[in-house]
Amino acid sequence: MIMKRKIGERGQVVIPKDIRKILGVRSGEEIVFEIINNKIEIKSEIDPEKFLEDFFDTPKLKKKLSTREMKNIILSQYDEEIH
After folding, report:
1. Is 13's pLDDT higher than 70?
2. Residue 29 contacts residue 46 (beta carbons within 8 Å)
3. Which of 9, 57, 72, 82 reaches 20 to 30 Å from 65, CA-CA?
4. Which residues, in sequence order, are bridge partners of residue 36?
5. At a CB cut-off of 8 Å and minimum separation 6, what does 56 contact?
6. Element (H, E) at 38
7. CATH 2.10.260.10 in the chain, residues?
8. What rounded mean pLDDT belongs to the chain?
9. Is the distance from CB of 20 to CB of 26 less than 8 angstroms?
10. What is the mean pLDDT of residues 29-46?
């Protein structure tokens, strides 16, 4: 997808609605700009807890897990996949 936008007098650019929808960002949220080889990548800022929850596909829990409990869950899932 390629879209063109003009840069305003104060250096501002409006991110088109379609792109905001794809990125899953709404008004007031923060985004990340990353420059790689003279190209700009725009990404939604990733919440570390949400990333880990999605990565490990863990259900929502009413209580917070300790690091030891989380490690045990990961190791038990790893054991199940191997055996």
Report:
1. yes
2. no
3. 82
4. 39
5. 73, 74, 77
6. none
7. 1-45
8. 82
9. yes
10. 85
